[in-house]
Design goal:
By secondary structure, the protein is of the alpha+beta class. It has 7 helices and 9 strands, in the order E-E-E-H-H-E-E-H-H-E-H-E-H-E-E-H. The chain has helices at residues 44-54, 61-67, 109-117, 129-132, 154-166, 186-194, 232-275; strands spanning 3-6, 24-27, 35-38, 73-80, 83-94, 136-145, 174-182, 198-209, 212-222. The protein has a 7-stranded mixed sheet with strand order 3-4-5-6-7-9-8, sandwiched between helices. It has a two-stranded antiparallel ribbon with strand order 1-2. Keywords: Acyltransferase, Chromatin regulator, Chromosome partition, Membrane, Transferase, Transmembrane, Transmembrane helix.
Length: 276
Amino acid sequence: MAQFTLYNKHSTPPNSDSTRVDCEHVPLCSINDVQLRFLVPDDLTEVRQLCQEWFPIDYPLSWYEDITSSTRFFALAAVYNLAIIGLIVAEMKPYRNVNKEVIANMGDSDELYTRLSGFPMQDKGILPDSMGRSADVGYILSLGVHRSHRRNGIGSLLLDALMNHLTTAERHSVKAIFLHTLTTNQPAIFFYEKRRFTLHSFMPYYYNIRGKGKDGFTYVNYINGGHPPWTLLDHIKHYASKVRHTSSLCAWVAGRVQQVVRWFYHKLLTRFNFIE
């Protein structure tokens, strides 16, 4: 795997002949001539224009201001020839905060931003209650690639960067990464399923696009030992496995006892014969 460099927009890009400053290397899939860097406030206009082209949702200006300036977000750009051609925005939150900021309507920009900061009720069951008390989750708010650069691995490059970021020892508390997508967005669904995201829930009328309600899906990828809540079937399988293990253990113990008894009996007979 090649080494890709995360660099600051105001520093020299990695391919320049000039001296580079303070760069952090992250192992990613190799794509020539593409660099990764975090968003900065100067990107606001460019990012806003790209998102308006890529996505049917009209994000409010405050959202662009936050993702280009706040360290609360993991906002990473794929850059080619000094232009942004791909983007991923994610946020890490304690799982116990899921569903605390849900609203019923997405009619205006302020409500949309509130919705982006929370999660729908269907997302409550992503983790078991016992794990969720101390776990964090990563929420992908946005992932897009410029139309002329799609199917070149750039989406995977950005997603890999996020996965690498969340699977370090320092972020072991993050047990799941999840996202929402339109049920009609087949390319996105295929992409995420290929990357081991699994369907978690169906959300009727989750999106409000041009005044019309659109259905959505929640997709989840479990990391750092995270797993979904157990179903009744999972509990049955678990206890059946314990019974099998216990039976095997009992059989092993019984076998060892038989061996000891036989050994003791053999020694006893040998000693008896010797005395005779």
